[in-house]
Write a structure and sequence with these properties.
Elements lengths: L1 H21 L10 E7 L2 E7 L6 E10 L2 E12 L5 E7 L5 E9 L2 E5 L8 E7 L2 E7 L7 E7 L1
Antiparallel strand pairs: 1-2, 1-10, 2-3, 3-4, 4-5, 5-6, 6-7, 7-8, 8-9, 9-10
């Protein structure tokens, strides 16, 4: 009996990294594509590359009429520990790191409590639409975006 328990304990110790890795969130490949929002003169585009080398690269821009008001570069990458992070560079500012804190089949939430605004960025799919919401960590001051496939 002692040998069996020792073997079982050793098996659990060696299997723990494998179990932890299998519980790691999946990359949000459902975001891949070209997305557009248009309402009157207001417009926005967001683009996400397919997953390659544990990274997806994104770009976004928005404006009114022929005027560009905002742009940003993003990347979602899997880190060595299996965690997923979103890096955002907006309007020539320093990169800001957001850590994936929740995920499901078609939804992922990224957070950075030390950032001024946003502190939370959430993406999800609703059918053929890509939705996003930025807010403070407690969900206050939400701004939601909805994109259709281009």
């Amino acid at each position: 009996m002692r040998l069996y328990l020792g073997f079982a304990a050793a098996a659990l110790v060696f299997a723990a990294p494998v179990l932890a890795f299998s519980d790691a969130p999946e990359m949000p490949t459902w975001m891949t594509g070209a997305w557009v929002y248009e309402a009157g003169e207001d417009w926005a585009d967001e683009y996400w590359t397919p997953l390659r080398g544990d990274m997806m690269i994104g770009a976004s821009r928005s404006g009114k009429g022929g005027t560009l008001d905002f742009w940003e570069h993003m990347r979602i990458q899997k880190e060595d520990d299996g965690g997923i992070v979103l890096w955002v560079v907006s309007d020539d500012h320093k990169p800001v790191r957001f850590v994936a804190t929740a995920s499901s089949e078609n939804r992922m939430t990224f957070e950075n409590p030390a950032h001024d605004y946003p502190q939370r960025i959430e993406y999800w799919r609703e059918g053929k639409k890509l939705k996003a919401q930025i807010s403070l960590l407690d969900g206050s001051k939400p701004v939601e975006f909805g994109f259709s496939q281009k």
